[in-house]
């Protein structure tokens, strides 16, 4: 297994702090200490708290893109991936979900670069759905339903019965 980069250690530390405490309590000093780097080392990779938060969100996009590519390579469609259901027990096993939850906790409306990064990540998934689904309205419906399923999973809300979920996906995808 390859050694984790300093950048990833810093971002992992940031995610952990965001998940464990109030976002207002997350400081550059606390992130540096949790990552085992000096504050100067952290600032070398991320020159501000806003850049650090935006870097975390962009890594979320990278993780999502990789997970999507793996799913498509395994024979699933983009739409099927987007409509996948998961529960709280899956979060510990999937860095993507941990990153998503931390990113959602970081969005406070005060950091323009973070807001822009979240928008870029969320909109990057639109193009795949639109390329796969001819009807732009149907593509948007799939995106909105997928966003709801994803958010419900992150928040630990009850997921639909697996058979009902399969029926919902089949209907949305015209099967």
UniProtKB/TrEMBL annotation:
Occurrences of domain HTH tetR-type (ranges): 4-64
Pfam families: TetR_C_28, TetR_N
Gene3D superfamilies in the cross-refs: Tetracycline Repressor, domain 2
Record keywords: DNA-binding, Transcription, Transcription regulation
Coiled coil regions in record: none
Residue ranges for the DNA-binding region feature of this UniProt entry: 27-46
UniProt-listed InterPro entries: Homeodomain-like_sf (IPR009057), HTH-type_TetR-like_transc_reg (IPR050109), HTH_TetR (IPR001647), Tet_transcr_reg_TetR-rel_C_sf (IPR036271), TetR_CgmR_C (IPR041479)
GO molecular function: DNA-binding transcription factor activity; transcription cis-regulatory region binding
Protein name as catalogued: TetR/AcrR family transcriptional regulator
Source species of the chain: Speluncibacter jeojiensis
